[in-house]
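Long-time lurker. I teach an intro course on protein structure, and each term I like to show students one example going from raw sequence to a predicted 3D structure in C-alpha cell notation. This year I'd like something fresh instead of my usual example. Would anyone be willing to generate the C-alpha cells for the chain below so I can use it in lecture? Attribution to the forum is fine with me.
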Amino acid sequence: MGQGPSHSGAADSLLKKRKFRLKEEAIKTILFLCAILSVVTTISIIVVLGKETFPFFQDVPILDFLFGTEWTPLLVPRSFGVLPLVSGTLLIVVGAALIAIPIGLASGIYLAEYASDRVRSVVKPILEILVGIPTVVYGYFAISFVTPLLRVVFPSTNIFNAASASIVVSIMVLPMVASLCDDAIRAVPSSLRQGAYALGATSFEVTTRVVVPASLSGVVASFVLAISRAIGETMAVTLAAGATPNMTLNPLESIQTMTAYIVQVSLGDTPAGSVEYQTIFAVATLLFVITLSMNVIAHRVLRRFREVYE
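-- Reply from a regular --
Happy to contribute to a lecture. Here you go:
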C-alpha cells in the first residue's frame, strides 16, 4: 500500500512523456507537410508555366523574344521582342533601389545604433504600417500626388511615367530594408563595439567600419528582398507607369513592366490558347528566371560574406 502513490506518480510521468513525444511528432509532421507543400507549389508553378511557354516558343523564336526591341503582341503586325518590358521593369527597379536602399540603410542604422528606446518604439511601428497599405492605394497616390509634383518641376513629364512609379515602389520597399537592416545590425555582438571604442574609434567609425561590415550578410539580404519585391510589384506600377512598351531610359516617359503586361492581358479579352494568350506565360517565365537568378546570386554572396558569432 505504501508504494501505491509512487507507482501512480511514475505512471503519470511516463504518460506525460508519451503525450509530449506525440505532440513533438505531430509538430514535426506538420512542419514536414508544410515543407512538402512549398516544394509541390513551386513545382506546380514551373509545370504550369512550362506547359504554356513551350508552345509559345514553337511559334516565336526564343532569340526574337529575348532580344527583340518591339513588343506589340496584341496589334498587327505582331512583334514579340520582350526587351521593352524588361527595360521598363529595370527602370522601375533601379529607380526604386536608388531611393529605398540608401534611406532604408540609414534608417536601420539610426534605429539600431542611435535611436533611444522611446523613439524606436514609435518610429519602427510607423514604418511597418507602410507595409500594410494596399498597393493599389500607392498607385492612386502616385497618380494624384506624386505625378502632379513632378510635372511642376519637370513640365514635360507624362501623366503616366516611370519616375512616379519608382518613387511609390521605393516607399513600399523602404520599411522592409529599414526593418531588416535594423535587425541585422542589432544582431552584431556588443563586444565588437566595445572593442572598437576601447581602441579609440569614434561612434561614426564604429558604425561604418565595424558594425555595418559585420552585419553585411543581413544588409545584403534586405537589399535583395527589396529588389525582388520591386520586380514583382504589379498594381502600383500598372497605375502609375502606364501601359506603353517603351524602350527608354527617360524616367519621365510612360513605360510598361512585365507584371503590368500580365495584368493587361489577364483581363479576359484575349482568347485562351492563342499566341497572344501564351505571351502571359512566356513573360511570367522570364520573370521567374530573373527572380530565381537573383536569389541564387544573393545566396552565394551571403555565403561568401556570412559572419557567425558565438
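Some talking points for your students: The beta strands are 71-72, 79-80. DSSP finds twelve helices and two strands in the chain.
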